[in-house]
Amino acid sequence: MRKLYIIAIFFLVGAACTKKDVGSPNFSVAANKESYTTADTVFFALSGTPWYLTFYSGEPYHKYENRLRVTADGIPTFQFGSTVTTGTQANTLRLLVSSDFNGTYDSANIYQATWSDITDKAKLATGSATVSSGVIDLTPFINEEHPVYIAFKYIGNAGSAQRNWTLKTLTLNNVLPDSTSYNLLDISESTAGFKSVAMKNTAVKWTVSTSQLNFKGGTTTTSPEAEGWVISKPLNLKKVVPDYGVPLKNMTTIMDAYYYIYTAPGSYTATFVASNASRYDSKDGVYEVPVTIQ
Questions:
Q1: What is the pLDDT, as a whole number, of residue 19?
Q2: What sequence ranges are listed for the domain DUF5017 (predicted)?
Q3: Positions of the chain with pLDDT under 50
Q4: Any residues with CB less than 8 A from the CB of 123 and at least 6 apart, and which?
Q5: Closest C-alpha to 231, from 68, 111, 71, 74
């Protein structure tokens, strides 16, 4: 009798576990033809009843194979606009890059780091009119083992009026060979993207806002020597954002067709991910449809 009781318990436990399992998605998809023009609407016939359905068009930023990608080889391009007013002191702004700065934003640690001066790669303003730096390629500073930091160093000499520098429209992007671009740094990040460190004459330093970086030096002949740094957050120059799909349906909806328009000629792999998922189990199916746009 005891043996039968134990068998019954195992049977009930097994049944409970089975109820938590989900079945594989019952799904298929087909396009109504293989070749289209940009004036066509692609028709995908859907059959089956998956609980969830997600669509990847195969276009840039929407490729299923890149859904888990977080880094990619590209060209890190940096650029900014600048203006300068007051005084006539020369060489008061330097553009620097470091691959060994330890991320502690104080004078001791900044001086201990190795900084490469790339000021000559940028075009700087000579007056109040905004001048674009041009595109600066930071490929030589890609580092697989350590984040990279970008810094602007201000130098103001004593004995004469010091300069007032303003930097605007600052951006850093990782541009891939297929022309997709991923933002790594932007002036709009404000203090999340940059930190100001006063090194000499702490009364004057870089100010950071969502629209600009500004350093206003002393304006008289008695102004003391000034030095200030503004340094970026740690940067991975190969960083990208994973591609993403468009959710088409959930458990409460029924869908037997999907229509999509491709706006550029090319060969694409449209991918549908069908899934059944619960808190206990999930099963997915990936269905690819080649699409040619002429």
A1: 60
A2: 16-188
A3: 1-17
A4: 131, 132, 133, 134
A5: 111
151-164 pLDDT per residue, tens: 999 999 999 999 99
User: Which tokens is 78 given?
Assistant: 């940096």
pLDDT in tens, 239-255: 999 999 999 999 999 99
Task: Identify the pLDDT of residue 204.
Answer: 87
- Domain identity same for 215 and 99: yes
CB 244 within 8 A of CB 69: no
* Rg of the chain taking only CA atoms, in angstroms: 29
**Co-location of 289 and 213 in the same domain:** no
What angle is formed at CA 105 by the lines to CA 101 and CA 106, rounded to 5 degrees?
105
Total domains in the fold of the chain: 2
* 110 token code pair: 């900044």
All residues at 6 or more sequence positions from 128 whose CB lies less than 8 Å from its CB, including other chains = 83, 84, 85
Contact indicator for 77, 150 with CB cutoff of 8 Å:
no
Query: 94 near 155, Cβ under 8 Å?
Result: yes
Tokens 């060979």 — which residue?
Answer: 177
What pLDDT does residue 202 have? 81
